[in-house]
Design goal:
- The complex is a heterodimer of chains A (157) and B (278).
- Chain A is an alpha+beta fold and 157 residues long.
- Chain A is built from five helices and five strands; from the N terminus they run E-E-H-E-E-E-H-H-H-H.
- Chain A folds into two domains: 2-76, Beta-grasp domain (Ubiquitin-like (UB roll)), CATH 3.10.20.30; 86-152, DNA polymerase, domain 1.
- Chain A has a five-stranded mixed beta sheet, with helices on both faces.
- In chain B, a hairpin with a 2-residue loop joins strand 6 (132-137) and strand 7.
- The chains are: A alpha+beta (157), B alpha+beta (278).
- The A-B interface holds A 2, 19-22, 41-44, 46, 49, 52, 55-58, 60-63, 65-66, 68, 109, 126-128, 130-132 and B 1-7, 9, 29, 32-33, 36-37, 40, 48, 50, 52-53, 76, 99-103, 105-106, 187-188.
Chain lengths: 157, 278
């Protein structure tokens, strides 16, 4: 077992993890964060995307021991049902959520993009979300939602 | 679930080398984007050494025209680095197209080389920059050309007790340089075909031409005889046509004729024509 101290959604967090435990397992099973989804488990679908130091990472291919000392964000950082983040509002408004499985990862990836670029062109949005697969929307609504949220959202890390 | 293993996260290269020399059934973790996928499919090791926290292995620097790239540099770090963008732009482009943004934040060039996929995007650009790898172990150090390091698809000359610590490339200035690839979709795709080039021209003559073709032969290759034959030649339709014919002959000689060539050969031909014309 390894003791891992890190920051999770702004709070200092300590967990004990197995050497062969993925960060996806640790988040879901030890910290009960079920928004981080297990999809393909081989780093292709993006459903398990988390932000490590504000950059998207696949939790399924990240060893839990690796996040020691780092800042980690899951979708819970963005908002909750009482106060949604402008990106979340935009996803609802533009129909960018259908089955919802890709949504937490998609939102985090979009948030990471908006931290670096407040007015991304569509081509930059598409590039940024290229590692997050959505099998429902066809992406048009997601790109629209991110583009429209960009104008009103002041993303703070 | 991953198979069971014990992991160590050394903070220095020296510590990593000591661990490599002493632990049994050991494997280096340099990002995990290939290794953990293989381990999910049954590959197993007793010990994993995670080298991603060793800051010395993430340095990119330049001295006297030679660029040193720490083996644990991520694709993201390489694709955005000023030195790489200005003196090895094909490598910056290629690393910027590997996998997806998350994969580029995780995967490293050292991992990419040791995994040795014949479709690895970094390989063709490394070849035109005459890349060498530095392999270190507790007992010493050796250097070799990337061409010699990769023995066959997914097979390299690295010993289980060695660590790939550094990739050294020649910086190129005064060349038009680039990387193109053909994929099934624009992003998040494996190259079916790739070409890296760096071409120096003056007064309608080719002064120096470097080409590397990937995903066409078992290992990306440089058509060196053709490159040499272009030196000092007039940039004309005839020169270009002859050079392309020669390269296609090279490909067929190395690979034999493959079913995919019905598609690949015409595409290589058109890409080369576009690249040589500039």
């Amino acid at each position: 077992m390894k003791k891992v101290d890190f920051t999770l959604n702004g709070k200092s967090t300590t967990i004990e993890v197995e050497d062969n435990e993925t960060f996806l397992q640790a988040l879901r099973e030890r910290l009960n964060i079920k928004s981080v989804k297990e999809g393909c488990s081989i780093g292709e679908c993006g459903a398990c995307t988390v932000l490590i130091d504000n950059e998207p990472h696949y939790a399924c291919l990240t060893l839990a021991s690796k996040v020691a000392g780092h800042d980690v964000k899951t979708v819970e950082f963005l908002g909750d049902e009482n106060l949604l983040h402008p990106l979340q509002e935009a996803f609802i408004e533009y129909g960018a959520v259908q089955c919802g499985y890709c949504t937490p990862g998609m939102l985090l990836t979009a948030y990471s993009l908006l931290l670096k670029d407040q007015h991304p062109a569509d081509v930059d949005i598409r590039e940024a979300i290229s590692g997050n697969l959505c099998r429902c929307t066809g992406y048009i609504q997601i790109v629209e939602a991110i583009r429209n949220a960009a104008g009103i959202c002041k993303c703070n890390s | 679930m991953l198979p069971e293993f014990a992991s160590v996260i050394p903070e220095s290269k020296e510590k990593a080398l000591t661990l490599l020399s002493s632990l049994d059934n050991v494997k280096v973790f340099a990002g995990g984007t290939d290794l953990l996928v293989k381990m999910r499919r049954g590959e197993s090791y007793s010990n994993i050494i995670d080298i991603t926290q060793i800051s010395d292995l993430q340095v990119i620097s330049e001295q006297g025209g030679l660029i040193a790239i720490g083996a644990a540099s991520t694709h993201k770090a390489i694709s955005t680095h000023t030195i790489i963008k200005s003196q090895a732009s094909s490598l910056a482009t290629a690393c910027g197209w590997v996998g997806s943004p998350a994969i580029r934040n995780m995967g490293t060039i050292g991992g990419n080389l040791v995994n040795a996929s014949p479709a690895a995007d970094s390989l063709a650009p490394l070849l035109i920059h005459d890349a060498e790898v530095v392999l270190e172990s507790k007992d010493g150090m050796r250097r070799m050309k990337v061409e010699d390091f990769i023995l066959a698809p997914y097979k390299t000359a690295i010993d289980a007790r060695e660590l790939l610590t550094l990739i050294q490339i020649e910086g190129l200035t005064g060349y038009r340089e680039g990387y193109k690839r053909v994929t099934k979709r624009a992003r998040w795709a494996i190259s079916r075909l790739s070409i890296a080039w760096a071409i120096q021209e003056a007064d309608g003559l080719y002064k120096d031409v470097k080409l590397a073709i990937g995903s066409c032969t078992p290992m990306p290759f440089r058509p060196r005889v053709i490159e040499e034959s272009l030196r000092g030649k007039t940039k004309s339709n005839d020169t270009i046509r002859a050079a392309i014919e020669g390269i296609l002959e090279d490909i067929k000689r190395i690979s034999g004729v493959r079913p995919s060539f019905v598609y690949k050969i015409p595409v290589v031909k058109d890409l080369l024509s576009e690249i040589l014309r500039g």
